[in-house]
């Protein structure tokens, strides 16, 4: 094991630092916290990572895999493991992430792992990932900045910050209107009543053409200002097998999918159950208590927590899986959610890739039983989910991983923009209320585009 160069640099705001790679074809920005102070004292809002100038890239689309710009044989997961194996291992740097793999596993990648064939045509890469030797790590709590890796790349000064435009007008169209959504909810409830499933996560997409001058980074700036989140991410790569088809993901995710410590401790934090914030602290507390007591919302969270217990149990030591937090209310930028926590210990000989393969797509955006719920929602929904409901992940040199569920996101794939929003449907669901909750989740995203 060799020593990795880590240099402390003068503090630069991570958003400012990102501007230096505004035109880079590949970049990964893991933007924990968004706006400082959004979630005071929360460790999930402490660190941000800017990963630049990758040493290797990987794009998987349907039955083809492209590594470093060339078509290769084999499956994407095997190539990911090989890319990780080629990384230089390093002694503990004191940073949560000092280089490794950063990527996206789309919802379609999860469908393939579960053996579900979609009736929709996807345009998003199944898997998009890159190896990064150079990472800038930003400790937002202590306002310290570090460069890890071989490169001597520098950062811009705070004076070079780019101010995002005030608004960007794009006309998004939903693939289901209100009545169609309500009808779809009723169909899911009917199937629950017949005993086919217990719960399903129903979603829709807003879609629009990307303007010729679309600036994905400027839009991400607006998104992170309006929707600060502990698992924000900006990823840029290519949409498919041709480098001239741009792809970018702009995520303001509030939900951790899976984390894996170097010692093999697995944690997942499923989110189900939503309520608005109040106009003041008293009203917010009242709404939080209503959410805490809501039978439907608790049932939704309990089922997904049990599903995630089952998923991680596939690859964790018997008896190691526990639920230290169940249905606790946590506040976020625009809403509050019921959040649970499931932990376990990964079996000896397994790694982060085994964990991802056993659990994708995330249980909180599928349903229970998982495979049957996925089959049903694929039949009911009107379009492919794409990156939405997949996972953004980082896997360090030491094998540790953190990942998020891709929600509250904007996807740019070639000349199309997509926004996905949804919600969990149970036997107790009221279709009109489900529509209002879904629109509440999507409002902050649509406001970015002047809607």
Can you give me a brief rundown of this structure?
The protein has 451 residues and is of the alpha+beta class. Helices cover 26% and strands 32% of the residues. The strands form two sheets. Strands 1, 2, 3, 9, 10, 11, 12, 13, 14, 20, 23 and 24 form a twelve-stranded antiparallel beta sheet that branches.
Please write out the topology.
Elements lengths: L5 E4 L4 H5 L8 E5 L15 E6 L3 E6 L2 E4 L2 E3 L3 H10 L14 E6 L1 H8 L12 E6 L1 E6 L4 E5 L24 E2 L3 H16 L5 E11 L6 H11 L4 E8 L7 E8 L2 E5 L4 E4 L2 E6 L4 H13 L1 H19 L8 E10 L3 E11 L6 H8 L7 E2 L1 H11 L10 E6 L4 E5 L3 E5 L2 E10 L5 H18 L3
Antiparallel strand pairs: 1-10, 2-3, 2-13, 3-9, 4-5, 4-8, 5-6, 7-8, 7-21, 9-10, 11-12, 12-20, 12-24, 13-14, 14-23, 15-16, 15-22, 16-19, 17-19, 18-19, 21-22, 23-24
Helix pairs in contact: 4-10
CATH architecture: 4-Layer Sandwich
Q: What is the overall pLDDT average? A: 89
CATH uppermost class: Alpha Beta
Q: What is the CATH H-level superfamily?
A: Anthranilate synthase
Pfam families: Anth_synt_I_N, Chorismate_bind
Domain Chorismate-utilising enzyme C-terminal: 178-441
Domain Anthranilate synthase component I N-terminal: 11-146
InterPro entries: ADC_synthase, Anth_synth_I-like, Anth_synth_I_N, Chorismate_C
If you had to describe this structure to a student in words, what would you say it looks like?
The protein is α+β, with helices and mostly antiparallel strands. The chain has one domain (6-161, 173-448): Anthranilate synthase, CATH 3.60.120.10. Helices cover 26% and strands 32% of the residues. The chain has ten helices and 24 strands. It has helices at 14-18, 76-85, 107-114, 178-193, 216-226, 281-293, 295-313, 352-359, 370-380, 431-448, and strands at 6-9, 27-31, 47-52, 56-61, 64-67, 70-72, 100-105, 127-132, 134-139, 144-148, 173-174, 199-209, 231-238, 246-253, 256-260, 265-268, 271-276, 322-331, 335-345, 367-368, 391-396, 401-405, 409-413, 416-425. Strands 1, 2, 3, 9, 10, 11, 12, 13, 14, 20, 23 and 24 form a twelve-stranded antiparallel sheet that branches. Strands 4, 5, 6, 7, 8, 15, 16, 17, 18, 19, 21 and 22 form a twelve-stranded antiparallel sheet that branches. A hairpin with a 2-residue loop joins β5 and β6 (70-72). α4 (178-193) packs across α10. The longest helix has 19 residues, at 295-313.
């Amino acid at each position: 094991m060799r020593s990795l160069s880590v240099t402390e640099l003068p503090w630069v705001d991570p958003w400012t630092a990102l501007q230096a790679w505004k035109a880079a074809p590949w970049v990964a920005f893991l933007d924990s916290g968004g706006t400082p102070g959004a979630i005071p004292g929360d460790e999930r809002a402490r660190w941000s990572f800017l990963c630049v100038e990758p040493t290797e890239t990987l794009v998987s689309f349907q039955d083809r895999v492209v590594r470093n710009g060339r078509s290769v044989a084999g499956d994407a997961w095997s190539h990911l493991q090989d890319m990780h194996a080629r990384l230089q291992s390093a002694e503990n740097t004191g940073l949560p992430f000092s280089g490794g793999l950063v990527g996206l596993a789309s919802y379609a990648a999860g469908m393939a792992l579960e053996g579900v064939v979609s009736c929709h045509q996807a345009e998003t890469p199944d898997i998009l990932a890159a190896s990064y030797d150079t990472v800038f790590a930003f400790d937002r709590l202590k306002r310290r900045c570090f460069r890890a890796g071989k490169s001597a790349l520098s950062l811009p000064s705070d004076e070079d910050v780019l101010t995002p435009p005030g608004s960007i007008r794009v006309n998004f169209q939903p693939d289901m209107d209100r009545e169609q959504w309500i009808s779809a909810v009723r169909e899911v409830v009917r199937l629950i009543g017949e005993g086919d499933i217990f719960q399903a996560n129903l979603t829709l997409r807003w879609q629009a053409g990307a303007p010729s001058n679309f600036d994905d980074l400027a839009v991400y700036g607006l998104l992170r200002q309006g929707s600060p989140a502990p698992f924000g991410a900006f990823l840029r790569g290519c949409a498919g097998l041709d480098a001239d088809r741009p792809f970018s993901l702009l995520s303001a995710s509030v939900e951790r999918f899976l984390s894996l410590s170097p010692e093999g401790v697995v944690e997942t934090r499923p989110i189900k159950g939503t309520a608005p914030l109040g106009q003041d602290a008293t009203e917010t507390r009242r709404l939080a208590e209503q959410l805490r007591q809501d039978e439907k919302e608790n049932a939704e969270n309990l089922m997904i927590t049990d599903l995630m217990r089952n998923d991680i149990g596939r690859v964790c030591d018997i008896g190691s899986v526990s639920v230290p937090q169940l249905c606790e209310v946590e506040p976020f930028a625009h809403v509050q959610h019921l959040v649970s926590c499931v932990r376990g210990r990964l079996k000896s000989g397994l790694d982060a890739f085994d964990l991802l393969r056993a659990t994708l797509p995330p249980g909180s955006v599928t349903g229970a039983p998982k495979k049957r719920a996925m089959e049903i929602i694929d039949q009911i929904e009107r379009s492919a989910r794409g990156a939405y409901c997949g996972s953004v992940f980082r896997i360090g040199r030491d094998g540790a991983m953190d990942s998020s569920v891709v929600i509250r996101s904007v996807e740019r794939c070639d000349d199309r923009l997509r926004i996905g929003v949804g919600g969990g449907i149970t036997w107790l669901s009221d279709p009109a209320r489900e529509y209002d909750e879904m629109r509440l989740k999507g409002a902050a995203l649509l406001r970015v585009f002047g809607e």
